[in-house]
């Protein structure tokens, strides 16, 4: 999963890593690992994480803005 640290499209940015807004408000987020969705493993994300199959990448920049070099170095290995 890729988080674009200056994302102007996705708000809050932490949701790019399956973060969630905490219940009852619209400012604070909880991480994927703190969420009930993860703890109850409804989507298999906890199992994937424990098996080392979830990767959390972050890059400077706005929504989907990355160089070919960054893509080749960080994403391409997962597509092979």
TrEMBL record:
A molecular function annotated in GO for this UniProt entry is: palmitoyl-(protein) hydrolase activity
Write out the entry's keywords from A to Z.
Disulfide bond, Glycoprotein, Hydrolase, Signal
Q: Does the keyword Coiled coil apply?
A: no
Please give the catalytic activity noted in the UniProt record: S-hexadecanoyl-L-cysteinyl-[protein] + H2O = L-cysteinyl-[protein] + hexadecanoate + H(+); S-hexadecanoyl-N-acetylcysteine methyl ester + H2O = N-acetylcysteine methyl ester + hexadecanoate + H(+); hexadecanoyl-CoA + H2O = hexadecanoate + CoA + H(+); S-hexadecanoyl-N-acetylcysteamine + H2O = N-acetylcysteamine + hexadecanoate + H(+)
Q: Which GO terms describe its cellular component?
A: lysosome
Q: What is this enzyme's EC? A: 3.1.2.2, 3.1.2.22
Q: Name one GO biological process term.
A: receptor-mediated endocytosis
Protein family: Belongs to the palmitoyl-protein thioesterase family.
UniProt-recorded name of the protein: Palmitoyl-protein thioesterase 1
Record the organism: Oryzias javanicus (Javanese ricefish)
């Amino acid at each position: 999963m890729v988080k674009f640290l200056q994302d102007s499209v996705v708000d809050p940015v932490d949701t790019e890593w399956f973060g969630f807004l905490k219940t009852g408000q619209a400012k604070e987020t909880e991480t994927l690992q703190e969420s009930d969705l993860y703890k109850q493993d409804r989507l298999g994300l906890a199992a994937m994480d424990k098996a080392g199959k979830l990767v959390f990448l972050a890059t400077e920049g706005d929504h989907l803005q990355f160089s070919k070099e960054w893509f080749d170095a960080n994403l391409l290995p997962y597509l092979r």
